[in-house]
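@channel sequence for tomorrow's demo:
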Amino acid sequence: MSLHETSLPGIGVRRELALADGRRIGVVTHRDGQTELILSDAEDPDACAISLPLTLEEASALGALLSGPRLVSQLQEEHADLPGITTRQLILPSDSPYAGEVLGATRMRTRTGVSIVAVVRAGVTHASPAPAMLLEGGDLLVVVGTGEGVRKAERLLAA
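structure tokens (generated this afternoon):
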């Protein structure tokens, strides 16, 4: 895997990952805080074929989506010998009553029997989050519990 970082004077920083087919996918982080998802063509890696501006919330949610499956996969492997244990990733909707609230306000374990074992935000995993952690719309919550408990947790977050 080949990672590239390029300083863009007056603009910000371009970070890219070279894909197997020669294209590059990356992010331009602008000095003013804006984020742009980019895809470059295999023939000219300096030319941008696609550019998608992202809001901070969208960038955070995308980071969570990309990093969450790896964590969930690791947890599922650890729980493989434990029948009845389900590990899932749930996105906290922006309009959830818990967006902007602390994790403890969900009372997730008491209400559903499900434990929130990690919160992934902007590609950063917060393992074993404290009840005082402030939740944001777009956060990816990694939960562990029974299948029914996970379904209840999903409904609770969307309520």
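heads up for whoever presents: The CA atoms of residues 63 and 123 lie 4 Å apart.
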